[in-house]
Design a protein that fits this description.
This protein is mostly helical and 506 residues long. 54% of the residues lie in helices and 6% in strands. The chain is elongated and about 85 Å long. It is found in: Cytoplasm. It catalyses: L-histidine = trans-urocanate + NH4(+). GO terms for molecular function: histidine ammonia-lyase activity.
Amino acid sequence: MVVLTGHSLTLDGMKRLLFEREKVSASSESWKKVEESRKAVEQIVQENRVVYGITTGFGKFSDVLIDPENVEELQLNLIHSHACGVGEPFPELASRAMLVLRANALLKGYSGVRKVVIERLLEFVNKEIHPIVPQQGSLGASGDLAPLSHLVLPLLGEGEVFYKGKRVEALDAMSQEGIFPITLTAKEGLALINGTQAMTAMGVIAYLEAEKLAFQSEAIAAITMEGLKGIIDAFDEDVHIARGYPEQIAVAKRMREFLEGSKLITKQGDIRVQDAYSLRCIPQVHGATWQTLNYVKEKLEIEINAATDNPLIFDGGKKVISGGNFHGQPIAFAMDFLGIAIAELANISERRIERLVNPQLNDLPPFLSAEPGLQSGAMIMQYCAASLVSENKTLAHPASVDSIPSSANQEDHVSMGTIGSRHAYQIIQNTRRVIAIEFICASQAAEIRGKEKMAPATRDIFEQGRKRVPFIDKDRVFSKDIEEATTWLKTEFSPTKKKVIFEVEK
């Protein structure tokens, strides 16, 4: 059980909620803050005070006063009018993450919603009722208004949800679980949609997948080192301490441990004096990606515990301030940075693939083919990797450098962070396929050299992968092999050597 407090949620907790489907609850202390904040909203309505989003319209309509008897209609109109997302839905995991993150933000006690609203969010998580949320339509400032409106619709008994592996009407799923729709009252609609939870949810999933992929890329690069008889000296600890980046030092250490006991690696001067950069600079390039991952993790762990709606209520309602915590710029930058960093893992991986298949760059059979000429071997797998790398380069163009004014220029600068998070996620999917191709080629090369000569750690990984992708003794439909290896990386891959392989030194 993950207990939400509004300030202590971690990426590890999100991992358990998303991938292990743990249940969620709220702390008693957070409920007290929620109740105090709600009393403040009710007092504002009762006194007919002019407060944005409670007794006024929204955006450019912030100067339009709303009669107290119309507050429920105001909130419903807000959700209906803002639910204009388009395109394919976010992955179901992202919808689940949005529910959790929205609940955690509201539990901070600055938003003024009733307890029942948060309880319903948590109930959806625990019953695994995940709203259908279209991916496109958010500017990433004023919050993720369109996506989060679609997240809210099922709470009202409207819209569609993922439920028991199917896409169904929300009311049908709720009826099966004995859950009744709620009616939103003063400020609640605004509090639910004025936030960064769509981009942050995608960011959390992207980060968790990227972290796993970064470890995997090192393990597979180690097999490539064996397939190409790479020079181990480049990973000597003194080299990396001399530069000083902790992440680079850690990657070099893991590479040494992966390759410990290998009879396929070489020393300087045995075959050649230096390796190409795609081998020699693995710690420098992969280490820089780890630097980025550490930055992204830090920003995400702040954002998943942030109050991002507007206005925020302080001091029991004595201070109600319209600010801009809904602006997604911190996450927009982080997502663009994440996409660029993971794209580089694919970039350097593809160069290693080229060295594995190009007979002008190695002493292996051309394109690792069993019968060069009659059979093409891995030739077109390299084409596929090159195409994915090129696509990543277009996806890695930063979304955060763009802004289009909205709401009659009231909202005149926006982050486009949700676009950045979606692109980062797609880059990760592409990169996983590139690394899957590297695994296929590296394993083929290592087996040609003699798998019995591999290091214990790389041999273990090799044997795991061979259950999915057999030795290439003749041409076959390699698309199937690529997808098999990709699925293995996403769901099963598990290096078993020393624990340090999984850890990034602090």
